[in-house]
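Sat 14:20. Reprocessing the chain from the morning session after the first attempt stalled halfway. Input below, unchanged.
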Amino acid sequence: MWRIIVSFFCISFISNASYSQEASYDKSGYASLIIKFSGDYPKEKPITQINLSNFFVSEKPIDFHHLNDSTLFVSFYTYGPTLYYFFYNRQYCKGLLLPDKLDVLNINYVDSSEYSTHYTGSFKDLFNHSIENGEMIREALFSGNYFSRKKPVTYLSANDYRDSILKENERMLSNVSNKNHSEFMQNYFRYEMEGVSKLFFLYNDYNSRAYKEQKKDSLTIKTPLQRDLSFYENINITNYGDLDKYIAPQSNLLKAVRQDSLLRLPNILNSTPVEYKAQLEKIFGLEMKGKKNMFYEIMIAGAYMDNINIEVPLSEQQKLDILSFFSNSNISNYILYYNELISTNKSKSAKYYLPFKKEQDIVFDNIINQYKGKVIVMDFWATWCGPCLAAFSEIKKIKEKFENEDVVFVYLTNESSDKGSWNKQINYLGGEHYYLYYNQSKIINKRFAIEFLPSYLIFNKKGELAQQSLGAYMGNETLSKWINEALHP
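Finished this time. Tokens:
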């Protein structure tokens, strides 16, 4: 069983494209995928939603269109190479699509259960090596004991911690990348995991790893090590503006950089792109010396998209600023396209809550008490958790089955989920959603022994725990049985 974070390998992927394809990397347009079935294929296709990520969005869910009984199709407006992933028959499928390109996946059924796949497109090696890549990531994050926390380490400074992470990152990349004989997969793994590990350990997990201990009375207080701008030396953040890096878009990492209070970047909605770039140049100018890449443009466009992704629309002045600033109209067109979408695609199907202050550690009873007299299906998930997202498509039928019963579906996630991605997913899912702080979710997880995602708790109408499935979806048949037992004890 894979640990929680392993599903995060859904975040980004690299291609085996030749340099001639790079002309498409800095373009916007409609990317498309068609899935064709042949042979003795099932009437009900065991396929989930497709989730999309590029430089500016992460884990955006959309549905396949059923053109006919044997053909599925999806097309979307994007900028640059865009990662997609979905599950077919519970098998992980991933790849990259280019603007103005159509990829084709043929699924041929030999009989009602055996099938083969054939992929046609620029990044077919990525699709064909899904399982191998997953195993490499599993070793990198878990079984290989890299970045281990078993032995507490005392760091002299924030930069000392940074250097230890970068050194361990290189050791992991060197060892694990060679486990696959494909040169493409070796390079892809390096591109992908270099960014993922930086996000985890230099940003998301920094405060819990890089600290000094102070004794106060009988207590031991852990204080995060103070950083200054020299912390960014050797992280090489500006490399993610290189055109060849577009095939591994690190949207969450660059967003973490933009939100880093150390950099004091302005709120793009209260300033201009020129002012935003000036601050970037103060910080990264020396690192960018001699480089001619898209780092500044990607960061500024991302700053606008961070707001659009949480449904904060642009003003007319901001639209003009964007059109005036970006010399590449592919970027400005992309930003303005998605700005227009938020006014037309808002969903009212989901209720979501951020009701608790961070200082309030114990929140579970407050949540559960809101649904007295109802059977509660509580889903613990995260936006980066592939199995969580795969289960959503299966549970959809259960939600439809019990929509007129006293049953409520409640979803809990924490700060590990990107807020923009969370907003997109909950509007897609519907239901009741809670976004918790780490300290709040930690107490709940300990109370119910939750170590893996997804996990599910079923409560009867009295608010008593009736059933649970920890670390995996129990399947529709079992869930339906549990709900009925809770409804009719």
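Confidence is low (pLDDT under 50) at residues 1-19.
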